[in-house]
Amino acid sequence: MIRRKRPAAPGTERFADAPLDGSLLEIEDVKTQFQTERGLVHAVDGVSFSLERGKTIGIVGESGCGKSVLSRSIMGLLPSNVVRHGSIRFEGHEIGSATGNQMRPYWGTQMAMVFQDPMTSLNPVMRIGNQITESLRVHFDVTKEYAEETALSLLTSVGIPEAERRLREYPHQLSGGMRQRVMIAIALACGPKLLFADEPTTALDVTVQAQILDLLKQQQQERYMAMVLVTHDLGVVAGRTDDIAVMYAGRIVERAPTRSLFEQTRHPYTEALLKSIPKLAMPSHSRLDAIAGRPPDLVKVPPGCKFAARCPYAQPKCLTDEPPLIDPDVPGHSYRCFFPVGSQAGADALGRNLAAGETATGLPVRKEGEAVLTGVAV
Amino acid sequence: MAGTGTAHLRAPDETLLRVEDLVVEFKAGRSGLRVHAVSNISLDVKEGETLGLVGESGCGKSTTGKAIMQLPPPTAGQVMFQGRDLTHLSGEELRRTRTAMKMIFQDPISSLNPRRKVEDIIGEGLRVWKVGSKDEQAAKVDEMMLAVGLDPALQRGRRPHQFSGGQCQRISIARAVVTDPKLIICDEPVSALDVSVQAQILNLLEDMKTRYGLTLMFIAHDLAVVKNVSDRVIVMYLGKICEVGSPDVIYERPAHPYTRVLLDAIPVPDPSIRPETRAKVIGEIPSPVAPPSGCRFRTRCPKAQAKCADEEPKIAEVQPGQFVACHFPLAPGETLPTRNGSGPVAG
């Protein structure tokens, strides 16, 4: 029924008999830089990880930490002023330096992406149905009827009622949550093995957010897809990922199985992110543990640990030496820190800083009850 | 949900702001239909209190905030502020009263004029009302910049694009506080910000409230954020009030099914809580052009009965300080049946 339409790009015939287990995606020392008037922006700076089939990894960090650029680097969706280094292997094939044309056979059929803003990512002058069938008809030699049937079943499976009528509608006739469901249907149309969801729910209401995250999880399990879930909210990834990578200034600063990351948080940045979320269990008017300051300028990245300037644990060593990403305690739980949270070295470092009233970078710290307050404003 | 009534209002002489039966309707294009954005809402705010207004997009929470400011004036209802009904004030009188009420908006970058310097943005209210001499005005601007954590010597001459989103929100706060207002309406002030910056701004708002004796109305869709800052919370749905009470009580034992749903929808940073097991609603908020009859939440409510379609629930006290508009309020500890949130969407 489905035949590949265009002649396969060199090497793509392997997709048919690729093994069903093992690493789907392996990236090693990926660096993505942008040439700008101000200088070279080091958006992603030496990231390595691997992702198995059917698994989900969450990538978490503040705005500007490089999490979106990382997923676009893997997909090969980057502007022309980019400088790329490192290796990206998808099913064992190197795509790290592939051009747009070389990536075409991968987009849609092998990997797909759901973007943050469903309004601006859909084509406003094209019917929903055509937007879903477009990739099917480009990639596979299918009849119009077959493509339409597939679109209908996809729309139904992503939970859109009256799917038949919706196929003939335009994006502006749908609500935000519905549009995001359509985006997911488009991404799933050609049965990708890897799905990127880049802040898929940030533009949505909290009740709709829960629905969309459940939908992504359900589709991912039914189709045995691997998924990369990019978000700034640790709450979003907590119950829905196998592994989490926390990024800061273009690097992974902590990577661990989800449960381990939350239960044995090691990196001060992960701890700070967790603490800054207001929790329902806290009484009202509790003072929040905010992270002082801002992420560093990625044009002039400071030496040493990139988080040192905002870290309550910072010691003189952190200003000169950059800690490596290692897993000294638990295999698979790696982090970049000399004075990790929950260790004796970390407790001693924090104790010294509290006694001095400031960290090695001059950031004021003090203890108020259980909370450690940093850089408190006037 | 479709709750009307005034059972939750307190004595008029205790309150700074008292809104009764507020109705805001808009024309829906040339169709002759009307958008029922806010339908018979009553609320009050005591001096020094923070009132949290929470609900999904389209529930009318921002419209309520703007109607209180008379931007635009409501279709019907009464807005009593410091003993005067704002809906009856005209031009100059309204303008003078508005100095005591300020707003902070959601998008910090687009709510600042990109061509103006920060010192001019913050000081404009002082110049318009000719408060003090030029030097006194400059000193006041510097004081405000310091209070919100900006460095006047370094940053007073900069323009908004040179600041991050969090810093722009600090400028907005300084601009709102500089003329010494009584009431500040914060319309989703942190929903465009990262969690780390969000915490900084929430702490700053608390500090400014204490330091300048402010009364706040805090509008947001995140119940955890609202709980953190508020003394009293109003949960809204499709132009109506669902539940009113102190945040700790509402969180401990929500009485309205919608409040339960909102609480369970908040993503919790704890991997041992499985999202599948939490209460969900199907579908999305219905159109305010043709809201459902009776209780407006009934089309998505797992507890809805025939009565909910026929009769609109009135706001009633379920326990001291907690008010709910529901025919079948939840008993303490009662949970809702979980539904598959990714199933078909109703309507």
Write the layout of secondary structure elements.
The complex is a heterodimer of chains A (378) and B (347).
Chain A: E1 23-36, E2 39-52, E3 56-60, H1 67-75, E4 82-90, E5 93-94, H2 100-103, E6 111-114, H3 118-121, H4 128-139, H5 144-157, H6 163-166, H7 176-188, E7 194-198, H8 206-223, E8 226-231, H9 234-238, E9 243-248, E10 251-257, H10 258-263, H11 268-275, H12 316-320, E11 334-335, H13 344-356, E12 365-368, E13 371-374
Parallel strand pairs in A: 3-8, 3-9, 6-7, 7-8
Antiparallel strand pairs in A: 1-2, 1-4, 4-5, 9-10, 10-11, 12-13
Chain B: E1 15-28, E2 33-46, E3 50-54, H1 61-68, E4 76-81, E5 84-85, H2 91-98, E6 101-104, H3 118-128, H4 134-147, H5 152-155, H6 165-177, E7 183-187, H7 195-212, E8 215-220, H8 223-229, E9 232-237, E10 240-245, H9 247-252, H10 257-265, H11 306-310, E11 316-319, E12 322-324
Helix pairs in contact in B: 3-4, 3-6, 4-6, 6-7
Q: Can you walk through the features of this model?
A:
The complex is a heterodimer of chains A (378) and B (347). With 378 residues, chain A is α/β, with parallel strands linked by helices. In chain A, 30% of the residues lie in helices and 22% in strands. Chain A has 13 helices and 13 strands. Chain A has helices at residues 67-75, 100-103, 118-121, 128-139, 144-157, 163-166, 176-188, 206-223, 234-238, 258-263, 268-275, 316-320, 344-356; strands at residues 23-36, 39-52, 56-60, 82-90, 93-94, 111-114, 194-198, 226-231, 243-248, 251-257, 334-335, 365-368, 371-374. In chain A, the strands form 3 sheets. In chain A, strands 6-7-8-3-9-10-11 form a 7-stranded mixed beta sheet, with helices on both faces. Chain A has a 4-stranded antiparallel beta sheet with strand order 2-1-4-5. Chain A has a two-stranded antiparallel ribbon with strand order 12-13. The longest helix of chain A has 18 residues, at 206-223. The N and C termini of chain A lie far apart (69 Å). Residues 7-14 of chain A have low confidence and may be disordered. Chain B is of the alpha/beta class and 347 residues long. Helix content of chain B is 30%, strand content 22%. Chain B contains 11 helices and 12 strands. Chain B has helices at residues 61-68, 91-98, 118-128, 134-147, 152-155, 165-177, 195-212, 223-229, 247-252, 257-265, 306-310, and strands at 15-28, 33-46, 50-54, 76-81, 84-85, 101-104, 183-187, 215-220, 232-237, 240-245, 316-319, 322-324. In chain B, the strands form 2 sheets. An 8-stranded mixed beta sheet of chain B has the order 6-7-8-3-9-10-12-11, with helices on both faces. A 4-stranded antiparallel beta sheet of chain B has the order 2-1-4-5. In chain B, β11 and β12 form a beta hairpin. The longest helix of chain B has 18 residues, at 195-212. Chain B is globular. The model of chain B is unreliable at 340-347 (pLDDT under 50). Classes of the chains: A alpha/beta (378), B alpha/beta (347).
